């Protein structure tokens, strides 16, 4: 593959790397590394996350050093075709792409923005760190990519995310000084993805590097407006170009002297088991401000709690309504027949292009409530009044849309695979009627 690299790119890299250039060039003909990240939001009947030993990785696995829940896997395992993938037990993600999020040091209760989020790898990683508390606004300007982002937020069982489809310039005045953690995984020239992404290779040019740097500056300026005093931005790219990396953040702090470059990181494909990546931690000055004090937990109103109990009281357990439970905070929003639980602390969404205003709880048609697939994926088995646990073979059949016999009580039932929530079914007359969404069925 190295024979097809643009000559201008090679000359730039020779100047940048010096004696390391030949080693760097050889990496393009070397092994590609594949990774997955176990989802901390998914718990089984024992209240535990999956372990790599439980993921059916027959070819073995190895820990990814910069992400505690990340593991390398071999291509022959094809984990994307497994029912546990459909259940959101793990997310398949390029190993180096997992590095920026831990640098943001997200904690439960934070208000977090992922400004350039599709397809959702880093957003779901942020959600995992939040642990269902606080707020995640995850944004993508491209409509088709935003839909993919929304689908991944649903599959990974994220409870506290709002998915928007806006430009950073449109978001900035709506969220001035609102977030205490922002990730800017900026659109870039993609030099670090050349051996993974052919389009990045064919579209590369020196002019495009310059155009990307100009666009990144605009995005970062919007992020600065949305960050509260004392907050942190992590800026990342998958390119080697200094104009888009070190120079980009240096120019940013020149324009915004209230910011400091705390740390930078470069991952080189000839140095690590992954593709090329850059990240920088940018902190905003503040005088004696404790961000945690600015991020209060908000309980649900009595009116919304009454409605939600009417909808779900005979489907979910009482712990869902207790403090810290999935249905204990936020506010209800209706969009057509669909009922959403918007996360606590989220401002008004009026006037914004919103794909997912929170967790979809279900739909109300002809006076009947039907729980949503997204609610099933977001629930823990202990939170459902009725559960059915399937093995992998049974779950694969369920994903195809097959019905099955069931001995459970009549009513909506949380269907699980290996103890992890997968979908809804409805028991009646000894049959578990399949409610796996038709658009997601496989086989």
What is the compact description of this entry?
With 443 residues, this protein is an alpha+beta fold. It contains 13 helices and 21 strands.
Describe how the helices and strands are arranged:
Elements: H1 7-17, H2 21-27, E1 34-38, E2 61-63, E3 70-73, H3 83-86, E4 90-92, H4 100-104, E5 111-114, H5 121-130, E6 135-139, H6 143-155, E7 161-164, H7 168-171, E8 179-185, H8 198-202, H9 206-226, E9 227-237, H10 246-255, E10 259-267, E11 277-284, H11 302-312, E12 331-335, E13 338-342, E14 354-356, E15 359-365, E16 368-371, H12 373-378, E17 387-390, H13 392-400, E18 404-405, E19 411-417, E20 420-428, E21 431-434
Parallel strand pairs: 5-6, 5-8, 6-7, 8-9, 17-19
Antiparallel strand pairs: 1-3, 1-4, 2-3, 7-14, 9-11, 10-11, 12-13, 13-15, 15-16, 18-21, 19-20, 20-21
Describe the protein's architecture and organization:
The radius of gyration is 23 Å and the shape is globular. The model has no long low-confidence stretch (mean pLDDT 94). Strand 20 and strand 21 (431-434) form a beta hairpin. It is built from 13 helices and 21 strands. The protein starts with 6 loop residues before the first helix and ends in a 9-residue tail after the last strand. The protein has an 8-stranded mixed beta sheet with strand order 10-11-9-8-5-6-7-14, sandwiched between helices. A 5-stranded mixed beta sheet has the order 17-19-20-21-18. It has 443 residues and is an alpha+beta fold. It is 26% helix and 26% strand. The protein has helices spanning 7-17, 21-27, 83-86, 100-104, 121-130, 143-155, 168-171, 198-202, 206-226, 246-255, 302-312, 373-378, 392-400; strands spanning 34-38, 61-63, 70-73, 90-92, 111-114, 135-139, 161-164, 179-185, 227-237, 259-267, 277-284, 331-335, 338-342, 354-356, 359-365, 368-371, 387-390, 404-405, 411-417, 420-428, 431-434.
């Amino acid at each position: 593959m190295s024979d097809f690299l643009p000559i201008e790119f090679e000359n730039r890299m020779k100047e940048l790397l010096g004696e390391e250039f030949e080693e760097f060039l050889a990496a393009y003909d070397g092994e590609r590394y594949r990774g997955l990240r176990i989802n901390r939001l998914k718990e089984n009947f024992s209240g535990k996350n999956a372990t790599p030993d439980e993921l059916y990785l027959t070819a073995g696995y190895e820990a990814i050093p910069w992400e505690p829940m990340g593991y390398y896997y071999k291509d022959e395992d094809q984990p994307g075709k497994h029912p546990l993938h459909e259940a959101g037990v793990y997310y398949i993600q390029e190993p180096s792409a997992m590095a920026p999020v831990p640098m943001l040091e997200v904690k439960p209760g934070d208000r977090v923005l992922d400004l350039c989020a599709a397809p959702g790898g880093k957003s779901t990683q942020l959600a995992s760190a939040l642990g269902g508390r606080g707020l995640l606004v995850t944004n993508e300007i491209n409509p088709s990519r935003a839909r993919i982002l929304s689908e991944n937020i649903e599959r990974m069982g994220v409870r506290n995310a709002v998915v928007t489809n806006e430009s950073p310039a449109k978001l900035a005045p709506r969220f001035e000084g609102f977030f205490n953690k922002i990730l800017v995984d900026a659109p870039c020239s993609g030099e670090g993805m050349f051996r993974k992404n052919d389009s990045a290779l064919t579209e590369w040019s020196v002019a495009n590097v310059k155009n990307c740097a100009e666009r990144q500056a605009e995005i970062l300026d919007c992020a600065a407006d949305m960050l509260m005093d004392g907050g942190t931005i992590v800026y990342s790219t998958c390119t080697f170009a200094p104009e888009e990396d070190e120079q980009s953040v240096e120019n940013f702090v020149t324009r915004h002297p209230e910011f400091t470059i705390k740390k930078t990181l470069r991952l080189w494909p000839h140095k690590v088991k992954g593709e090329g990546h850059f990240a920088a931690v940018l902190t905003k000055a503040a005088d004696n401000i404790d961000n945690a004090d600015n991020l209060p937990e908000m309980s649900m109103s009595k009116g919304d709690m009454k409605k939600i109990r009417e909808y779900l009281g005979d489907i979910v357990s009482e712990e869902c309504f207790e403090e810290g439970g999935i249905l204990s905070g936020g506010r209800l929003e209706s969009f057509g027949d669909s009922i959403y639980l918007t996360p606590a602390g989220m401002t008004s969404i009026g006037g914004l292009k919103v794909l997912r205003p929170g967790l979809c709880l279900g739909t109300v048609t002809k006076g009947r409530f039907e729980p949503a697939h997204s609610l099933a994926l977001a629930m823990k088995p202990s939170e459902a009044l009725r559960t059915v646990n399937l093995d992998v073979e049974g779950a694969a059949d369920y994903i195809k849309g097959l019905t099955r016999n069931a001995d459970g009580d009549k009513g909506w039932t949380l269907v699980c695979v290996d103890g992890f929530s997968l979908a809804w079914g409805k028991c009646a007359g000894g049959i578990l009627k399949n409610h796996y969404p038709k658009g997601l069925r496989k086989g």
